[in-house]
Amino acid sequence: MSEPTRSSAEAADAADPLAHVRARFAIPAGTTYLDGNSLGALPAHVPARLKTVIEGEWGTDLVTSWNANGWWELPVRVGDRIGALVGAAPGQVLCGDSTSVQLFQVLTALARLRPDRHTLITDGAGFPTDQYLADSVARLLGLTVVRVSPSDVESVLDDDVALVAFSAVDYRTGERWDAPAITEAVHAAGAVLTWDLAHAAGCMPFGLDEIGADAAVGCSYKYLNGGPGAPAWLYVAQRHQDALDLPLTGWQGHAEPFALEPSYRPAGGIERARVGTPPLLSMTALDAALDVFDDLDMNVVRAKSEALTQLVLDYAAAYLPGVTSATPADPRRRGSQVSLRLEHAYEVTQALIARGVIGDFRAPDLLRLGFAPLYLRHVEVWDALEILRDVLATESWRDPSFARGNAAVT
User: Fold this and answer.
1) Cα(226)–Cα(219) distance, rounded to whole angstroms?
2) How many CB atoms lie within 10 A of CB 397?
3) What's the half-sphere exposure (Cβ side, CA atoms, 13 Å) at 281?
4) Cα 274 from Cα 247, distance rounded (Å)
5) What's the number of CA atoms in the CB half-sphere (13 Å) around residue 363?
6) Which of 25, 26, 258, 267 is deepest in the core (most CB within 10 A)?
7) Is 196 a catalytic residue?
8) Angle 128-141/99-112 helices, nearest 10 degrees?
């Protein structure tokens, strides 16, 4: 490995096939944004789209917009656009509600596909919402929860396992799991599996159909850049849709919503996963935000992600003594983030933010840096690392103001 230099970062930018995409985003001057794995940056055209919806569609067309402006079809249309980014053919992804709601829907419905089995496997190091909902669904359905790392799932698979639920990328360390192999092992045991793609969708290709996934969920405010509180999405493979017994049976998921029947009859296909009236303004913002992907190859996006994260790992090895990486060195095993392990990581994170480098912290000792390939340049990542080097060398993180607590993000 040769030591990285600023010149090599400049050369990478000069050869970057995604360099033109940065202009599609509103990046604040003086900010190096390394937290796109928590909240993606604002696509520059989204405010104008929202203005049209608010003033024209809502303000002028009013309730007729459900038909005249396509509001009713939005959850399916946006779902298919997301599906194209994660390897799902049309008719298998639906947008709406929160990640928590979508995960509850999927966990319950998939477990009901295996009524004679009584074990739910999940990752004990997964994001807390995934843990809480696994426990809640287990209480609801009389299941036993077993927690294990995705890398060790085969050690606990048996004929009592109904459902496995894993994140494709570890939210703390950025470790990427072998989704095809894990899916194959789970299916060989007769169980079904759902993937949480919150830290995968929008920064890497993911072949849901190709690997034979049963279901998936994901948020849309990270690498998909849908904005704070943007609606989440769920995927259910077409082969399961007719048998899907969802726990939340809202009127929009009815076979004939406007018949206003007293009893529920599920709609055909993925639309049975609709619940109540979707958040139209935030879903419209997401729909507009997805425009930035229309002419992009996700393999090219992934290649840049690997280059950016490799730059960080190489820099840390060369110039940051005492700092180690919790993120795998093998590019096939990491997502689009690098988590650096260091003392006083919280205070260091705050010192970086004060100097315009926005990352985040994970207890107890992780500086978590996310790399959105669409709008980050190699040279600004280099400069951010130089600032980190200076913060550590000068111990400027010792300023008492950097020890004050702030709300964390996902």
Assistant:
1) 9
2) 22
3) 12
4) 11
5) 7
6) 25
7) yes
8) 40
Which band of pLDDT confidence, cut at 50, 70 and 90, is reported for residue 334? very high
Which residues in 151-175 are b (16+ Cβ under 10 Å) and which e?
eebeeebeebbbbbbbbbbbbbbbb
Set 25, 33, 127, 315: catalytic member: 127
Mean pLDDT over 217-236 rounds to 98
The token duo for 344 is 């006083």
Task: Tell me the pLDDT tens digit for each residue of 130-157.
Answer: 999 999 999 999 999 999 999 999 999 9
The single-letter DSSP state of residue 336 is: S
| Number of residues that make up the chain | 410
Q: Alpha-carbon distance 251 to 245, whole Å?
A: 15
Name the catalytic one among 223, 368, 377, 402: 368
The 3-state DSSP class for residue 235 equals: strand
Q: Is 127 a catalytic residue?
A: yes
Phi, psi of 67 (to 5 degrees): -100, -50
Residue type for position 280? L
Instruction: Using alpha carbons, select from 188, 113, 110 the residue that is nearest to residue 122.
Output: 110
- Which of the residues 16, 97, 170, 196 is marked catalytic? 196
Instruction: Determine the pLDDT at residue 380.
Output: 97
Pair 345, 370: CB distance under 8 Å? no
Q: Of the listed 114, 176, 222, 274, which one is catalytic? A: 222
Which token pair is 158?
């048996």
Amino acid at 357: V
Say what the pTM is.
0.96
As a whole number of angstroms, the distance between CA 291 and CA 22 comes to 13
375 is catalytic: no
pLDDT tens profile 7-40: 999 999 999 999 999 999 999 999 999 999 999 9
pLDDT of residue 79: 98
Find tokens 């072949």 and name the residue: 207
DSSP string, 216-284: EEE-SSSTT---TT---EEEE-HHHHTT---S---GGGBSSGGG--SS--BPSGGGGG--S---HHHHH
Considering 166, 221, 235, 315, which one is annotated as catalytic?
Answer: 221
DSSP bridge pairs for 254 = 266
- Checking if the pLDDT of 226 tops 70, the result is yes
